[in-house]
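Feature request, filed as a ticket because there's no other form

It would be nice if the structure record came with a short human-readable summary line next to the tokens. Right now we just get the raw output. Example of a typical job, pasted below so the devs can see what we mean:
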Amino acid sequence: MSHCETVGNVHISEEVVSKIAAVSAAEIEGVFCLEKNVGKELMGKLKKKWFVPGVRIDFHVDGIVIDLYLVVKYGRPFRSVAAAVHKNVKEAVESMSGYTVDCVNVHVVGVEFSDAARA
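Raw output as currently delivered:
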């Protein structure tokens, strides 16, 4: 008599992946915040729920596509901040979820000029 051990499946929700992406983006120096109001009209048309404001996750056969909508602190080089966000988010999502991240699109949608952003 043989025993067949079934390990089962592990499913990680879009909400969890969104939160990982948001936290790992916020860790980068120069990111002021994720934009909370961007894309409401677009997402309403697409009938897709945003689990974390400023983060959109799309699961595809080949991997995950992540779109991040950021406000960057004034005086920080946007391209450098975006590159660091891209790298950190990709590594965090892949290492924590085991999913392949096909693409991380970083959209700089604002710049923060306040004293809090300059600190």
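Something like this underneath would help us a lot:
The chain is about 35% helix and 25% strand.
The chain has one domain: 14-118.
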